[in-house]
Structure formats: structure tokens, C-alpha cells
Amino acid sequence: MNAERLAGLLCCVLILASHPQDVHAGALASVRELSTPFQDPLLTEPDELAAGVVLPGDGQPASCPALKEFSTPLGLGEAVDLALCNNAQIKAAWADIKMQAANAGVARSAYLPTLSGSASYREDTTRYPDARIKKQRIDNYPLNATFAWRLLDFGGRGANHDAAMLNLVAALAYHNAVLQKTLATVVQDYFNAQVTLAVWQAKRLNEEIANNTLEAARRREAKGAGTSGDTLQATTALARATLEKNRSEGGYRKAMSVLLYGIGIAPQTKIALASDLDEPSGQAAQDLEEWIREAKKRHPAIVAARAQLESARYRVDATRSEGLPALDFTAGYYDNGRLEQSSTETRTQESVVALTLTFPLFEGFSRTYKVRASEAQVEQKTAELYDTEHQILMEMVKAHADAVAALHNLDASARLVNAAQEALRASQRKYEKGAADILEILNTQAAFADAQQERIRSLAEWRSARLRMLASAGLMSRSEVAQ
Q1: 114-152+325-359 belongs to which CATH class?
Q2: What is the pTM of this model?
Q3: How confident is the model over 449-460, as pLDDT tens digits?
């Protein structure tokens, strides 16, 4: 190589070294286009990646509403959509589906041949200081092409492929499990906020009733029909009602902050909740055995654990097969020699065809321990499946028992509120006419407040138990939430 060409090459190297980021940014896009010319040539990506995941009972995937100024009350469906679109764990599980689909493509590609080629330029200069010819230069342009194809193994590729596909199934099921968990969390947070709002409103009503009682006591004292002791007791009751109202307001603000944080909205956002503390309709649910059957069959966490166990079993077969013979076919073409050969003035053309049978004879017992590790992983996945089923079914049993008890308590709490309200009205009328003392009206007022609290608690227990049953069975969806 002469001095001019050497200087030009050095200049190029210096330019590349002095601007590595610019060169990297420009070259990276080109490399990506050349290295991945096809999106999914082996068809391993599931339809969910393109169409989206549809929850059980829904007709289409959840939409992502745009963040806006909430001039209207936030409904439960909108809160669910925001949570499903903004939850970081859902995004991570979605990325894991893509990764497992890519791994399945890698496993499937083992059945296809590989083809590689190379082209280079070599300049070979030899100097002879004491000879008549002082220097000899040979320019060479080697062109190489290699074709390789594994024709036969003892199930290793098949086991790896089946394991990769089962891992993809597990990733899809795990993503659904995260969706179910997120749904359960946001609905529970939304309902907790509504319950604390209902408690706050009840406490405000109690404060208003206590204030009316105080005004009535003052009127009676001014007319001489009441005593200052009655007025003081009514004042004490009002102060207690105001304190309880303030505490319930703090609980509501806290519950709202938790809800807004969970759905990806700034906690300081001013927002109102839609009224959704309705009376329940229908029966508690199916029989407990039917719920358990549904959970075993459809709960995504159980499906994911079962798929991971089957994948681990295939991994044992794949590990064993790596110690068995393999048959490979290779073909190569070399023009102007191979890259590792020295240059010659004579042009050469070489072609090679080979059929190779490989026998792994001894690997230092590493295969034995790899098989043992794979078998231990099967045991681990079996225990994880049992633990997952145990936890989910235990939660199902407890939720079903709570739902049945809560449904029975709804009628009793409704009758309690009606009776306490009628008693309070009667006491107020009697006190205004002087037929009852302050203790009676304060007692009926406290009884009405307790009845309201029991009613709200009964509704909360019912909604919470039903939510837990749906989540435990893996059946929660936006349509179920709306119902």
C-alpha cells in the first residue's frame, strides 16, 4: 500500500473516531433496516400484539382516553381505561409478550438453513532487499459463500420450540393476570373513594341534623320550655358531629389521592366521582364449586403457571438431546482462496460439500448436571403451580363466604336505616312539641348515624366480595365492572 492510500485510510479512521456519536446514530438506522428486513417472517407473534387483548366478556380491547380537564364526574369505566393504559406493570408484561414471541421465532429458525457470504480485498506486498526484484505485490479479491443446514437431531429443536411457544402462552396469560390485578385494584380504589365519599356525606347530614337539634334546643330555652343543660348537650353533639365530618373528609381526600395515582392522574387534580353506590341486583353468584371450576380453568395466573411447568418439562428433553448425535449438511464456495489462506497470483475456485455426523462423547459430566438442573426446575414450577392454585382458590372460598354473608346483611341494613330514620323524625316532632327530652332525640340521632354507617358498610362488603370473586376466577372485565 503506497503512502497516499495509507494517509487516506488514517484520515478516515481519525474522522470516525472523532465523531463516534454522529456516525453511530446514522449507521444504526441503516443497520436496523438491513439486519431486520422482515417484521415477523416465521409468524410467531400472537394476534393480540396487533389487535390488542380482549378481557373475558368484552367485545373489544379497552381504549385509552386522552387526559383532559375533568369537567364531568369520573365514571368507573373511564377510570378503568386510564388505569389499563397507564399501568407500568401492564406495559412490562406487554413487552415480555414481544420478547417471548421473538424467542419462539429464534427456536423456529433452527429448522431453517443458514447462508452467509463474504467479500474482501487483500494486498500482499513482499520485499526482497538483496534480490534483483526488490518488491512483489499481489492483489487478491476472495469471495466466500457458506450454506449450512441441520438435517437431523434427536428432538432438541422440537423441544426448544415447544418450550418457547409455551413460554409465549405463559406470557400472554401473565399479561391477562396483570390486567385482572389492575382491574381489581382500580375498581377497589374507586369503590373505596365512593364509600368514603358516602361516609362524608352521611356525616355532613348528621352535622346538619345536630345543628337543627341545637337550634330547636335554643328556641325551647328561649321560650322557657327547655333548660340550658339541653342546649349544652345539643352543642356537644354538634361539635362531635363536626369532628366526625372533618375526619371523614380527610379519609375521602386520602382515598381520592390513591385512586388518582393508580389511574395515572396527578393527585392534586380536581375531580368528582360519578354516583355508583347503587343497590345490588341479582343473586350473590353461582355455587361455590362452579366458581372454583371456573377459576381452575380460566384464571390467567393458573394458566401461566401451568404453561411454565410444561415449558420446563420440554426444557429437560431439550437438554438431554444436546448430548445426542446430530447430522449437519454444509456447502461452501471459495473464489480466490479462503480468508485465512495466504494470497497467490493464481486465481482459484473451490467448492466443498460435506455431510457431518457429530457424536458428543464426553463433556466432563456437564450434561448430567444440566439435566439435573432442568429436572429441579420442573419440581420448582410444579410447586409454584400448586401454590398459585392454593392461593387463588383460598381467596375464592373466602370471597364467596363474604359475598353470601354481605348479601344477607343488605336487607337487614336497609330495614335498620328506615327504622332509625322514622324514629328520628318522630323524636324531632315530639321534641318540638315538648313531649320528649334532649336525651331521646340525641339517642335517636346517634342511632340514625349508626344505621347509615351500617348501610354503607354492608354495600361496601357486598361490592368488595363480588369484586374479589370475579378477580379470583379471572373473569373480571370492563363489562362486568359496568354491571
Answers
A1: mainly beta
A2: 0.73
A3: 888 888 887 887
